[in-house]
Structure prediction request, 143 residues.
Amino acid sequence: MKVTLLLADAAEAVNGKLYILGGGWSVMGPDPAPMAIAIKIEVPWDQGNDIHKLQLRLVDADGQPVLAESEEGEVPVVLDADFETGRPAGMKPGTPLDLTMAVTLGPLPLEPGSRYEWRLTIDGKEDDEWRVAFSTRPANAAS
Prediction:
């Protein structure tokens, strides 16, 4: 599968298209702010109509899970989803099947002056191309 990830201030997936506001950044903060991740997945023709498991997780510069407060205490920032792409009538066999999705997150309390990375896995498989990294400004930096 081919995957494109893009960080944005806001994103929405509607009718197979991504609508992105403030996209393409790689530095934020230092104060917590909302963010979105725009995702486009090209599913190979022969994997259409199959259910796939997607996981998006946030890790720090050392590859360790980033933790956030929840009702259960501190938990890793992980998003899980299943997806399935159908083969539209009349589409030429062999054509990749597009899937678009947007994940919107509220402000995360990230450490200023640090590096983070969103990592995507599909069906338990990872690829270095399925990552998008960003940094937070130091606490004394102007936003």
Remarks:
- The chain has one domain: 2-136.
- The chain has a mean pLDDT of 95.
- The radius of gyration is 17 Å.
